[in-house]
Amino acid sequence: MKKQEKKQVKELESLGLKLVQDIEKGRNPTMEFTLRSLSNIVFDERTKTLSLGKKQQQRSFFNVGHAKKFMQTLEVAKVSKNLIDVQKHASLRDVFYMAKRTIPNSNTNIVDEQAESDNAIEDLELITDCSREQMHINANKMGSVAGNVVVEDAGDSINWSKLGSGGWSIPSNVEDIEFKSVKAKYVIYMEKQAVWERLHEDKFWEKQNCLIVTSQGQTTRGIRRLLQRLNDEHDLPIYVLADFDPWGFYIYSVLKFGSINLAHMSETMTLQNARFLGITADDVTNYDLKKHFIKLKDVDYTRLKQMADYDWFAKHKAWQRQFKMMKDFGAKLEIQALSSKGITFISEKYLPDKIKKGEFLE
Amino acid sequence: MKKQEKKQVKELESLGLKLVQDIEKGRNPTMEFTLRSLSNIVFDERTKTLSLGKKQQQRSFFNVGHAKKFMQTLEVAKVSKNLIDVQKHASLRDVFYMAKRTIPNSNTNIVDEQAESDNAIEDLELITDCSREQMHINANKMGSVAGNVVVEDAGDSINWSKLGSGGWSIPSNVEDIEFKSVKAKYVIYMEKQAVWERLHEDKFWEKQNCLIVTSQGQTTRGIRRLLQRLNDEHDLPIYVLADFDPWGFYIYSVLKFGSINLAHMSETMTLQNARFLGITADDVTNYDLKKHFIKLKDVDYTRLKQMADYDWFAKHKAWQRQFKMMKDFGAKLEIQALSSKGITFISEKYLPDKIKKGEFLE
C-alpha cells in the first residue's frame, strides 16, 4: 500500500472509530465537516480561487433529516476502504451500483440515484481530506498528451515522445503516475482534439520544447490534476488555448479559479498561474479573422454577462475589455478559423509569435 | 509519398484532367458518381450491409442547380490534393475554414456551413473511391486501446501492452499504422471508458489474451477502421460490449450493418462478423440484475420499434426476442450494474463465462 493510501485508510478508520466511540458513550453518532453549499462558497482573494468558507455542518444518525445521508456517507466510506484494501479502482457509476443495495428487512435502497453517492463521495473528500482519486474512485477518462516526458505508471515506463500520432491516453486517475524525466518549458492545454492533432503532426512540442495536452470539451479531473502536477512539481507554466467564445473563456475560468462544484477541492484542482493564450479579441483584428465570425446567441450573451460579473473577472480590466469587445462584435470565433490562413499557420506563426511576445491574458 | 497516396493523387488528377478535357472540347464540365441519397440506399443481402444502389448522378458546371456544389467539390479536391502534397492532415472543421474563401469580385463564399464541405468530401470519396482518411482529412479523435500488439506509427514503435493505466490514445486516422506484432485471440470493443479502465486494471487483456478498445459514446471512424483492420488483416473476432438499451443495440447495429450516412463506405467501415456479447435480456435474468432496471422512456420505445423494423433485424429471431423482452421489461440496464456483484465480477466471471460458452448475438 502506498503512503497516500495508508493516510486515506487511516482517515477512514478514524471516522469509523469516532462513530463507534459515540455509540459506546451513548452519544448520537455524528460526523462534522465543512458546509458544502452555495452559502459557504467564497472567492478567496489570497489564493484567487473559489473555496469553501468556515461554516461547519453536522450529520447525525438519530436525526430524521440526516439519517439517510449519514448511512450513504458510511456506505461509500466502506466501498472506498474496500477498493483500497483490494487495490482496485472504480468509477463513480460503479460506486453507485455498489452502494445501491437494499437495507435488510426493508424496501429501501441505500442510494437510488447516482447524485446521492456522488454527494456522499464529495462529503467524504472533506471529512477525510483526501481526494476522490485517492479514495480509488475515478470519473471519466479523456484526452491525450505528447512531449518529452517519461513517466512510470502501473509498472510501465512510458515515453510521451514516442507514441506515434495517437499520444498517451490520459487515465482518469493520475495520482500514481511518477514523473521520471520532464524536458519542457511549458504546457499548452487545448480544448479541441483536432487542434492537438494539428500541433502533434507539426511536431510543435518538439520544435518548441513544450508539452501538448487535450481533452475534448470539459476538462476532466484527471487532466486538471495532470496539469496541476506538471505545474506544481515541475514548474511548468500552463497556457490555455480555446475558442474565442464565452465557453472557451469559461473553461479557462474553471481551470484557473475553480468552480462551485469543486470549491472543496480548490487546492488540488485549480491552476492559479494558468494563462490564456488565445483566441482573443485582439487576435481577431490582428489576424484579420472577422470573416469567420459566428453570431452570438442569447445563451452566449447570458454566459458572457455572468462571467463579466464574476468576482475574479469583475475587477480585471484586460478581461472586461475582452468581454466588451466580444459583445461589440456580437460574435465569437473558433480556433480552427486559423486554418483559413494555411494548414500550419497555427503551429508555425500564431503560437510561436504569441508566446514569444508574451501575449497572454492572466 | 505512400502507394495509397499516389492512388489518391492520381484519382484527383484524373478528375481535374477530365474536366479540362470537357472544357477544351466545348462540353459542359461534368462529374458523374453514384447517387448518395436515401432513394439509393439499399440493404445488400449478400454483404449484409447498408450500401448504395446503382443509381448515378451528374454534377455540371453550367447548371444553376449544380454550379455551387460543383465548385465546392472542386475546392475540396484542391484542399485534399494540397494536404497530400505537403504531407499534412486536417480535420473536417479545418477543411471547412480552408474552403470558406470569398470568390474574387463577389460577396459569395465557396462554403458557408461545414455541412457543405462535409458533403463535398463525401462526394469526393465516391468520385475518387478513396476514403476521407486517405485524402488526409480526419474527424474526431477518441478512445484508447490496450493489449499485446506492437504497431509502427509516425516513426515510433508503440507497444500497446506497455502503456500504464492510460493505454494508447487512438488517432483519428489509423490508415498509416503498421501492425508489427499482434498477439491476441479476439477484440472486445466497449462503449464506456470506465468499463475499459475496469478491464485494464484487472489485466483482462493479458489474462484472456485479447485486445480491449473503447471510445466514449459514438464510435468514431478511426476506431471503426482500427477494428476493421484488426478483423481483416489479423482475423480477430470483434465482440461488442454495451448497455442493454436501445442505444447500446444501435451502436452494434451501426458497427455491423452500417448506417445511412456511411452507406457509401460500407466496404471499409462495417464489421460484418462482429458479435454482440452483452448486456442481453438473458443476462438480466441469469445474473439477477432486475433490481438495477432503468425505466424505458418514450424515446427508448421509439428507437426500439425502429430497430425491430430494420431489414437486418426484422427476420432475426434472436434479436426480435431481445427487443420483445426489453419491451416486456419496460426497462433497460447499464453494463455497470454488474459492479453490484463485486468490483471484478465483470472481468473474472461475467466475460470469461460468456465467451467460454459462446453466448453471443450475431
Q: What does this entry look like structurally?
A:
The first copy, chain A, is an alpha/beta fold and 362 residues long. Chain A has two domains: 3-28 and 63-138, Arc Repressor Mutant, subunit A, CATH 1.10.10; 144-357, Dna Topoisomerase Vi A Subunit, Chain: A, domain 2 (3-Layer(aba) Sandwich), CATH 3.40.1360.10. Helix content of chain A is 43%, strand content 17%. Chain A is built from 14 helices and 17 strands. Chain A has helices spanning 3-24, 67-85, 92-99, 114-128, 193-201, 204-208, 221-234, 246-257, 266-269, 281-286, 298-309, 311-314, 317-329, 345-357; strands spanning 30-34, 41-44, 49-52, 56-60, 90-91, 137-138, 144-146, 149-153, 156-159, 168-169, 178-182, 186-190, 210-214, 238-241, 275-278, 294-295, 331-332. In chain A, helix 1 packs antiparallel against helix 2 (67-85) and helix 11 (298-309) packs antiparallel against helix 13 (317-329). Chains A and B meet through strand 5, helix 3, strand 8, strand 9 and strand 10 of A and strand 5, helix 3, strand 8, strand 9 and strand 10 of B.
Keywords for this entry:
homodimer, 362 residues, 17% strand, alpha/beta, globular, 2 domains, Arc Repressor Mutant, subunit A, 43% helix, Dna Topoisomerase Vi A Subunit, Chain: A, domain 2, three-stranded antiparallel β-sheet, 17 strands, six-stranded mixed β-sheet
